[in-house]
Amino acid sequence: MSKKEKTSARANRKHIDISRREFEESISSLIAQAEMLCESSIHEADISLTDIKGVLLVGGSTRMPVVLDSIKRVFGIEPISSANVDEVVALGAALYAAYKSDKEHLSPLQKNAINKIKVGETTSKCFGTISVSDENATGQERLTNSVLIRKGESIPCSVTESFFTIQENQQTVNCQVTESSSPETDPKFVRVIWSGKLKLPENRPEGQEIKITFSYDENQIMKCSFLDVGSKKSTEVDLSIDNESSKSEIDINDFKVD
Question: pTM for the whole thing?
C-alpha cells in the first residue's frame, strides 16, 4: 500500500462508541443459541448438571462477562479459565495433529504426550433419506425423513436399510441424502445435501427391494449407496462432511455390477 493509499484509508476511518449494554444486546441471540446448544448436549449425553464437575473456557469470546454469566446460568457453577483461552484451540489442534501423524517422526517427549490422549470421534449430525410411508390413521402415503446414521454414532460406522418401490413399472428412484441436528422425520425440517436418480429396469411389480447404505469413516467421508437388489444396479456418491456439516461432492457413479 502506498503512502497516499494509507493516508486515504486513515481518513475514511470512523470512531464509534458502543456501550457494554448495546454490545451485549446485539449478541443476545448468539448467547441464547449457545445456551440452547449446551442444554441440548446435556440432554443428549443423558446426564444431569450434578454429573458435571467443571466447565473449561476455550476461545477469546469467553473473556466477555456476558458469556461467563451465561455459563453460570446454564451450569450453575463457576467456569474454569486457563492461562490463555486464546491459545487453547491451537494447542489442542497441535496435539491432535501429532496424534494422527506418523509416530516415527515424533520425539520421545512428544510420543509420551500423545500416549496420554484418547480420542473418540462421533458424528455431529443425523443423516438419512426421504422415503414414502403410510399414515397409520388415514392409510395415505406421505413423505418422511428416514434416519440411517444418528447423531453421536461412533466413527467409523456403516448402516444398511431396505426400502421398496411403491408402484408397478417404477422407472426411477429419487436418491437423497439428508442432514439434521436431531432425528427429525418431517422433511420440512431437514436439509438435503445431495440428490440423484437410480434408474430401474422396466416391467417389474411394485415392492422391489432397494438397499441404502451409508458408511462414515475417520476422514469425514460418507459413502452413500442406493442399490437395486434385483438388477444389481446402483447409484453411489462420496460426500466430504466438514465440522460445520457442509458438504462437497467428491465422486458419483451410476453403474451396473456384474
Answer: 0.66
